[in-house]
Design a protein that fits this description.
heterodimer; A: 5-stranded mixed β-sheet; about 35% helix; B: alpha/beta; two-stranded antiparallel ribbon; 7 strands; about 10% strand
């Protein structure tokens, strides 16, 4: 291996963001495997919790549960239709299965099984999926850019897009306390820890104002709340006072809180989502705003209606407008 | 055993007769399948399954999954015959507000374990239920009843692989091979033979019987239930569409049939005559 000779420098080469890559930025505070640890902790007092996966225990942090409770862990192999069907069967027998795989496979590959086996009978299955939205550089095969739209469309499905390790560890007991099917996005491995800096606790079905601001209201879910908070910090120097409303539960949508915040003053309203602009949080909020006959200065930051490229996540997040820098620049141009 | 057999013959006759009466309510339907599978259902509900009338959620019951939801007309007939549903309800089959929809759904009908109809889902559900029952140390069996058309679905084979991987000896799959699916003969739409070899290769204990031969069906159920081997069991039942009504047996396209108003009485009369003749 010889180093490139024609450059004096120095910029590190960005490589494809693989499945094991952490979404955390360099130097960011992280907590390891919050989902797996929270599940193990809760499982001690809830013997009906079981874990199931389609050959992705290690990649969804379910392996921690499998090690702690081997007799309550069920390997279904690389067979997502079976995973969802069997999870439904488990729930029919009174167990509470956590079924894990990647978001692309659960939603696109096993949709009818989630729809017909699980949701149609309102079964108590918790579907937990890694690699939500654009969190892999593998290209469309692994980029679940439409998972929220698909899951929102299913009657009775609760849909959650957590922001960070704190959200995830608090989400686990909350979804078990809820009787019914849940689709939750997961971040796995070294997961950023952000929300512990704020007065915040995950509550199923509730949007919460994480930080107030008079110029801009960013309404966001998932990792975009982390980005929104970075944007707010960065712009606090004088360019804009940014409020952040975190909406971890996509369905049922906390319309009252969202409309109340939109109705406060005449701030620039931006919905930011790690998802195609079709059918996710942005369109859900746009619809509820129209139904309320409101007309805010409304913008949507979301992934384009395209098959996205492969590559390194920082490059891709910049290209598709969901990086902190891209959002800051969008706000500056919009104010 | 022979007394048993006479009783089972009566069950099969009554199941066929209830199915024809329900078919008459709609004037059409999956009558061919119902007549074909009546003998299996007679053995299931008249002999093999543990259940309690009035307690569809009884924890110790055997679970019977109707993966092919469109066979509901046959299944309701078996439930009526078993006393789980009342005969009066038969007149509501497929009508608005009925508990007996044309395709079986769990939330509508007592005794209907799953919502079938999206084909290829029963066996995966059965795998989950069998795993859960074993986990709970509940000795009940899970029976998954499916059509030969469902052999086309990949999910059936995903589940077949998992059932043997997990050594699910409490799972019994019943495949109705009537060689008919929506677009034609199953053996031509997507040929599946050699079928016994396929299931055996997937690690299952396999029996293939004439599904309209009551003693053979009875023996197959008994073998599947008593086997010691730690593996799932499948009974492949070759059946005749429209069995017991000659003009329905003779129909070429019989996946979903229309029957003229005057033909129902004729079909029931033939069934009655042949049962009364055979019972002598």
């Amino acid at each position: 291996m010889s180093a490139p000779s024609d450059t004096a420098v120095t910029k590190p080469k960005l490589t494809t963001s693989a499945m094991i890559a952490s979404i955390a930025a360099e130097g960011q505070r992280v907590r390891a495997a919050p989902f797996g640890k929270a599940l193990v902790e809760l499982a001690e007092s809830r013997p009906e919790i079981v874990g199931m996966t389609a050959d992705l225990a290690k990649y969804t942090d379910l392996h921690i549960f499998a090690q702690a409770y081997p007799e309550r862990f069920f390997q279904m192999g690389m067979a997502e239709q079976l995973l969802m069907g069997a999870a439904g069967g488990m729930a029919k027998e009174g167990l509470i299965p956590f079924a894990t795989t990647y978001a692309v496979f659960a939603t696109r590959r096993a949709y009818d099984f989630i729809h017909q086996v699980i949701a149609e009978e309102n079964l108590n299955v918790k579907i937990a999926c890694a690699l939500p939205g654009l969190t892999s550089g593998y290209g469309p095969s692994h980029q679940a850019t439409e998972d929220l739209a698909m899951m929102r469309a299913i009657p009775g499905m609760t849909v959650i897009d957590p922001c960070d390790a704190l959200d995830i560890e608090q989400m686990v007991p909350a979804v078990v306390a809820h009787d019914g099917p849940v689709y939750m996005r997961l971040l796995r491995g070294q997961v950023p820890l952000v929300l512990d800096e704020y007065d915040y606790k995950f509550k199923l079905g509730q949007a919460q104002l994480i930080r107030d601001g008079k110029d801009v209201l960013i309404i966001s879910s998932g990792i975009m709340t982390m980005r929104a908070l970075e944007v707010a910090k960065e712009m606090a120097g004088g360019s804009a006072d940014v409020a952040v409303l975190h909406v971890p539960t996509i369905k049922p949508l906390d319309e009252a809180t969202i409309l109340k915040e939109i109705g406060r003053g005449s701030r620039l309203v931006i919905v930011a989502e790690n998802h195609t602009r079709i059918g996710g949080l942005g369109e859900a909020i746009a619809a509820c705003v129209l139904r309320a006959r409101m007309a805010p200065n409304y913008h949507q930051i979301a992934l384009p209606d395209e098959f996205l490229a492969a590559g390194a996540l920082p490059t891709l997040h910049d290209r598709y407008g969901i990086s902190t820098a891209a959002i800051v620049s969008f706000i500056k141009n919009s104010l | 055993m022979s007394a048993d057999l006479n009783q089972l013959k009566e069950h099969a006759y009554r199941i066929r007769r209830f199915a024809l009466r329900m078919g008459e309510v709609q004037g059409q339907g999956y009558i061919g399948q119902a007549l074909g599978i009546a003998d299996m259902l007679a053995v299931a509900y008249g002999h093999a399954l543990k259940f309690k009338i009035g307690e569809p959620e009884w924890e110790q019951r055997d679970r019977f999954l109707l993966s092919h939801g469109h066979y509901a007309i046959a299944f309701y007939s078996a439930l009526i015959n078993a006393g789980i549903l009342s005969e009066d309800e038969l007149e509501t089959y497929g009508c608005d507000e009925s508990r007996l929809p044309m395709s079986g759904m769990a939330s509508y009908t007592p005794g209907m374990e799953i919502s079938g109809g999206s084909l290829g889902q029963g066996l995966p559900i059965g795998v989950g239920m069998a795993l859960a029952l074993r986990h709970k140390r509940n000795p009940a069996f899970v029976y998954n009843s499916m059509s030969d058309g469902e052999l086309d679905e990949g999910s059936t084979w995903e589940a077949a692989l998992a059932a043997s991987s997990h050594k699910l000896a409490n799972l019994i799959c019943l495949v109705d091979i009537n060689n008919q699916q929506a677009d034609g003969h199953s053996s031509e739409v997507l040929p599946f033979e050699p079928l016994s070899d396929k299931w055996a290769a997937f690690g299952w204990h396999v029996q293939r019987v004439n599904g309209n031969d009551l003693p053979a069906v009875l023996a197959a159920f008994d073998t599947a239930r008593s086997l010691a081997a730690p593996q799932p069991r499948v009974i492949l039942l070759d059946t005749k569409m429209g069995k017991g009504v000659s003009f329905l047996e003779a129909r070429e396209k019989n996946h979903f049939i229309r029957v003229e108003a005057n033909e129902w009485a004729q079909a029931i009369a033939e069934l009655d005559a042949s049962y009364q003749g055979g019972a002598q």
